[in-house]
Design brief:
This protein has helices at about 5-25, 30-50, 55-80, 90-115. It has about 120 residues and is mainly alpha-helical.
């Protein structure tokens, strides 16, 4: 069975890398975009790590950290829009993907917490 959150986080990481290249090469912005690159690519890496978690608690921890990274990525995207490194269209497009990942990760974290309590 295909892991939807892993697939979506990988596709998101590709978008983040491409956006980083655009921002650093065309707009000469290195600080904010580097933060976005770090957190935006960490999401998928943590989800990949969670596939081989040693326990449910380990899985939950990795997914929680992935959720924090997704939340941080959303922050950097908002900041880049509000400082005019991203226009509204660019921002809305990538933020939709980020929001979708946030919703998936919140759901996974909640259901995992519930299953651990049982």
């Amino acid at each position: 069975m295909e892991n939807i959150v892993a697939v979506k986080s990988y596709a998101f990481a590709i978008r983040v890398v491409k956006l980083y290249k655009l921002l650093s090469q065309e707009k000469r912005e290195f600080i904010l975009s580097k933060q976005m690159l770090r957190s935006g690519t960490a999401i998928g890496a943590l989800i990949k790590e969670a596939e081989h978690a040693q326990s449910k608690a380990d899985f939950l921890n990795k997914m929680n950290v992935a959720l924090k990274e997704a939340n941080e990525t959303e922050y950097w995207l908002m900041l880049m829009k509000d400082t005019e490194y991203l226009n509204e269209k660019e921002f809305q497009s990538i933020r939709e993907d980020c929001s979708e990942l946030l919703k998936l990760l919140i759901s996974i974290v909640k259901s995992t917490k519930t299953s651990i309590k049982k």
